[in-house]
């Protein structure tokens, strides 16, 4: 008896007795009770190794990058990457979750390519709305806050590449290609900051160079790891949209909530303390070496400004708390 199922020998197949209801013939038969197979162990090993390498690469990349660029540059880059993450969470992740949900049925019928084509079409449709929102937001940032139109363009490129990567990784996950999946994640975690560090060291301290390096690294990895061009997939009929969108739309608020919980605070603080305080200065304020009794002029000035800004931040959080409660 396994989880409410009783298997009874009924030549030439087994039969299934489910929760005391009735006996039903199982034409496919059962040869043995499923056990922890070597493939499961292998898949788990790939996933664990990929996560470990990704975590180490992320920490090492941030450590090297913060030594080569100023806090202002690093803060701008991190906030820009956060904008791309929000776009992916809202416009892509719900669709890929729908792909994972429907994949078993399509794979069983031999039409997984149709599902892949439908996912690509849904992502392109959502991308049109994301592009419009990014254009208007970037235009406002450029005109009202002296932002860089070039940075907006690079962020748009990052969103497009990350969306393509998300679709490819989702299908790899569904097909249980965990080794390739883990390798891509690890290469992304190491490749982006490594290329950005090299370019920042050679070209100079500019957030545009760092973001451009991120984009180049992502495009190269997409070309290496993607399984096949989307144009070669089987065409999807419009009826598939009627299955993808009803599943994906309720998941959009979850993407927003997850982004706010994980990354939203830095934009609130950045609005009060400026971009430098939002990301770049925080670690330098906290991580002061105990072995060195000297405190740099930069740290003293930063600390003084930080203390003055705390009062403004406290007042701002009062209204933010009310808004969060609503």
Task: Provide an overview of this structure.
Helices cover 75% and strands 5% of the residues. The protein has helices at 38-68, 71-91, 93-108, 112-144, 149-174, 178-203, 207-225, 238-248, 252-273, 275-286, 297-325; strands spanning 5-10, 13-18, 23-25. A three-stranded antiparallel β-sheet has the order 1-2-3, with no helix packed on it. The relative contact order is 0.12. The model is unreliable at 1-24, 28-34, 229-233, 275-280 and 282-298 (pLDDT under 50).
Task: Describe, in short, the structure shown.
The chain is mainly alpha-helical.
Describe how the helices and strands are arranged.
Blueprint: E1 5-10, E2 13-18, E3 23-25, H1 38-68, H2 71-91, H3 93-108, H4 112-144, H5 149-174, H6 178-203, H7 207-225, H8 238-248, H9 252-273, H10 275-286, H11 297-325
Could you name the key traits of this structure?
single chain; 326 residues; mainly alpha; three-stranded antiparallel beta sheet; 11 helices; disordered N terminus
Oligomer: single chain
Largest sheet, strands/sense/barrel: 3 strands, antiparallel
Percentage of residues in helical conformation: over 70%
Question: Overall 3D geometry?
Answer: globular
C-alpha Rg, in Å?
25 Å
Terminal Cα span = 50 Å
| Lateral arrangement of strands in the main beta sheet | 1-2-3
DSSP summary: helix tally: 11
Roughly what fraction of the amino acids lie in strands? under 5%
